[in-house]
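Its record is quoted verbatim for completeness.
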Amino acid sequence: RVVQGASVLGSRVDPRTLAALAGIDELACAESCEQLTRVGLLAPRDTSYEFSNDLLRDAVLEALAPAVATAYHRRAADLLADRPEEMAGHALAAGDHDRAARGCPAGRMG
């Protein structure tokens, strides 16, 4: 769940947001991120983590079943409601075009 959630959130992830997305507590999430760091999938960056390689992130994201990816994006949009541009990207990926348009500055949505 942690690596899947991280792939949905993007190249750089905050453990607190990732924990909420994965439905686990923050400590368990940070420990999972450390395990993923030891096997080379993630790399620590200050208090966050990022994928060691964008191709790894893309591979994990593409391996998600469409319904699972949609559910993760919908939940990410909910979690990121206070960050309109990030929320808009997840809402769009979840197929919620109206919500995405509300979060995206004029002229930025394709």
Helices lie at 2-9, 15-22, 26-38, 54-63, 66-79, 84-93, 97-103. The beta strands are 12-13, 42-45, 48-51. Residues 66-79 form the longest helix (14 residues).
